[in-house]
Amino acid sequence: MPAGKELLVPLVWQPVLGARGAEIYPIIRKIDTVSSNSYLIRTGHALLLIDPGGLAEQADHLAAVIAECRKERYLPLIVFLTHAHVDHFLALLHCPALSDPATSTIAVHENGAIALERGDRNVTQSAILGMEIAGIEIGLRLFSYAGGLTPGVPVRRTFPSGARISILRDMVCTASGVPTQRERLTFGSGKVLEIYHTPGHSPDSICLRFGRILFIGDLLFAANPGVAGLCGWSQDSLVDSIDTLTPLIDGNEIDVICPGHGRVIAIGTGRTMLRSIRKDAVALRDIQELNTERSQTTAVFAEECLSHVSELFTIMAGRLYYVSYVIEELGETDLVEHLATLIKSDTIDTLLDEFSAFSEDYRSGKQQPIHLALKAAQVIAKIERSFDAAALGRIIDPSLISRASRLIADYTTTLRGFSPPTERQSLAIAPLVANLIRRNSARVCSDEEILASTDDDDEFVQVLLARIGTPPLFLDIEVTFDCPDESLVALVDPDRFCDLVTDLFEDLVGTGAEQIRVTVQQSGSGVVISLDGIGCIKPPMSQDSGFLHRSCHCAGGAFTSGYSDTTRRFGITLELAQ
Amino acid sequence: MEITTTTHDGATVLAPTGRVDTTTAGELELAINQQIEQGNRNILINFTGVTYISSGGLRVLLATAKKLRKDGDHYALCCLSAEVHKVLKLAGFTTIFSIYPSEGEAIARW
């Protein structure tokens, strides 16, 4: 199958359009953090390998294909690294056949060369992935500071592998008219490989254009949560690099974009994606570095978040089953079928099971914190596509959905390198708490509303579903509220405070509280909100504790909890507003 | 998942262990259905060993409630952990079937 306007077929030699006589053999992998795609190109004068990947079996496969190519006649191998991240080069260490200077020349940007020769664990990302690496000898340093290259004047070099390369450095203009360097490599008397320095994802990132194909390394992922902020990442450089490539991809010179991970992309899709990435990148100013410490704290949050999301979605699905059960009793089978479409419970269950198994692997040391953090993001993204929030919120308590959504958004924000947004205000606490108690005590639809809806079938069904699906939390529980000083004003994020108190009320009701006592009082320079649940089952020592401390911190307070003699006690201390 | 089945004062007590999730909910449903097919219609599920229940598990519990609605049938759950109790309570299931702290209390109330 020809390359060019058709996308590339994995594991098959196929012609490269725009480079007559050259062929390409792609290894396309599903996206992961373990290994990149690899692209092997055969010209009449050399074999060019773009990213050997990170796996021993991938290296062995490439070595076998290269050996087959050399059966007819010897061709030197030039290994280009789109950047010196471990998932793109580790295969070199697994397989001497790919890195032996006698047969292979490794080419990487000057900054990557320095990192690889030193075995730098931070720049190569081996530290965050918990790996050790040995130094690698680099044959060809691209965009070298000391290469003796004068723009416009070609330099011919011969390498121990037998590779003869003519290198010409020239200048091109970015989309905004800024001149930037490019290197054009010619192999023997044959084909030209254009190389663009495109830092941002890493300082040494390059993109390579051969024929009508553009190899762009990890540029497509550079603004993604869990990728942006890695050691060496630069927002300004990323935006500039996309601008560097814009004239090339907007012109009529490229048909196919080959990314470092995942499927090959047609140029039209690639243009749209790069515009979107530029927009994302512009928004990423001042993100925190994604280092080992941050990946660990994000992994802790990932487990807390998914544990609570799991509970919320199980309750939501269960509530919908309950509604279906009651509706079925009424003989409304069509309605039951409709309800089943509002949440893909099986899909969500499977995703949560997958995360649970992944989390077990993490705890047993088989996965690194960054892997868990990224897995959580992947699971969350799929969960978000598995339910109809608007329709569900008209039947079951919308607070369940809004709390799940806020938690998911907080996790994504954290993984991106930002702090979850909070908005503290000076507010009277007593009315806030009293309103929450009132909201959880009242029926969502009154008897009068049900009677008023009977003239309209659709409205009646909606009111009926909401009435069944959202029973008052305090239906059979006595709740008392005591606030000696109703004028107490505290600094608080009201939305997050209400989410937290609702979570705590649900915890008390869910663990069997027969009575709940709520008090608000001043203590020193703080306002203390105490929630006591009487008659509760002994609570577990679970991850929820960390989740509640984090939620309370976001609301503007400090959290305490305790249990004695069937009474659970939660305390929230807010700062008294002056 | 391991499910122990015993009889106790005329009740069939099924005691699953571990997680009732996508993989294991079907096993629990099969075990319950086998008992019902054998004519055992006083079913008590002892959750002492259950650490987690998914929505698939909730569906099995509800499906069982639908099967055991004849006069003389009994269906209840007992010994729930705080986590599982919370999910069942907030999902509204405690209005469909009864939950007891122990096997003895469940059977004494039948």
Structure description:
The complex is a heterodimer of chains A (about 575) and B (about 110). Chain A has about 575 residues and is α+β, with helices and mostly antiparallel strands. Chain A folds into three domains: about 260 residues, Ribonuclease Z/Hydroxyacylglutathione hydrolase-like (Metallo-beta-lactamase, Chain A), CATH 3.60.15; about 130 residues, Four Helix Bundle (Hemerythrin (Met), subunit A), CATH 1.20.120; about 130 residues, Heat Shock Protein 90 (2-Layer Sandwich), CATH 3.30.565.10. In chain A, about 40% of the residues lie in helices and about 20% in strands. Chain A has 17 helices and 22 strands. Chain A is elongated. Chain A starts with 13 loop residues before the first strand and ends with a strand. The relative contact order of chain A is 0.07. The N terminus of chain A is likely disordered. Chain B has one domain: STAS domain (Transcription Regulator spoIIAA, 2-Layer Sandwich), CATH 3.30.750.24. Chain B is globular, with a radius of gyration of 12 Å. Chain B contains four helices and six strands; from the N terminus they run E-E-H-E-E-H-E-H-E-H. In chain B, strands 1, 2, 3, 4, 5 and 6 form a six-stranded mixed β-sheet that branches. Chain B is about 40% helix and about 30% strand. Chain B is α/β, with parallel strands linked by helices and about 110 residues long. At the A-B interface, helix 7, helix 9 and helix 16 of A face helix 2 and helix 3 of B.
